[in-house]
Amino acid sequence: MTLRRRATGLALAIATGTTLALTGCDAAKDAASDVIASATAAVASAAQEKMNEIKDGVDAAADVKAGRTSVDGDRTVAEITATNPKDKTADYTVMVNFRDGDGNLLDAVVLNIDGVEPGTSKSGTARSNRTLTGDTTAEIAQALRH
């Protein structure tokens, strides 16, 4: 299943969960929380599957930094910067987790930053799959240089 298809499923699950949460019933609120948690886990799983497709990558978490989050339209975004310490041009594939103030996973995305020249930095924007509310942070879950 593609990441886009899973993101669409996530949006439907969130809409369902929001509808249930608005009913005021504790059981409905619990069900909504379960739906949202399940959908978030599915998106994170899809992002990890995308990372697993990179066969020639080496761990490059130390090369990549996440900036502060901000809102762009209805999505949360963060600037991600890769700094290439090697002597040849490299591409980076980065899994970014968006978390709330309590550290709970809200969303996960995969970002490619291609053509980073030796000794230089290049940035890209990680964009959430859905609307996130509250105080959010972006963290580098995994980064591969290839």
Search tags:
single chain, 2 domains, four-stranded antiparallel beta sheet, 146 residues, 41% strand, 2 helices, Immunoglobulin-like, alpha+beta, Lipoprotein, signal
State the secondary-structure class: alpha+beta
What is the overall pLDDT average? 82
The level 1 CATH classification of the largest domain is: Mainly Beta
Question: Can you summarize the main beta sheet?
Answer: 4 strands, antiparallel
| Rg, alpha carbons | 17 Å
Q: In total, how many beta strands? A: 7
> Low-confidence stretches at least 5 residues in length (pLDDT < 50)?
1-23
Protein name: Lipoprotein
Signal peptide: 1-21
Keywords: Signal
Structural features, described:
The protein is an alpha+beta fold. The two termini are 24 Å apart. The chain contains two helices and seven strands, in the order ααβββββββ. The protein has a four-stranded antiparallel β-sheet with strand order 1-7-4-5, with helices on one face. A three-stranded antiparallel β-sheet has the order 2-3-6, with no helix packed on it. 32% of the residues lie in helices and 41% in strands. Helix 1 runs antiparallel to helix 2. A hairpin with a 2-residue loop joins strand 2 and strand 3 (75-83). The protein has helices spanning 3-21, 26-52; strands spanning 58-59, 64-72, 75-83, 90-100, 105-116, 121-127, 136-145. It is globular. The chain folds into two domains: 3-51; 56-145, Sandwich (Immunoglobulin-like), CATH 2.60.40.
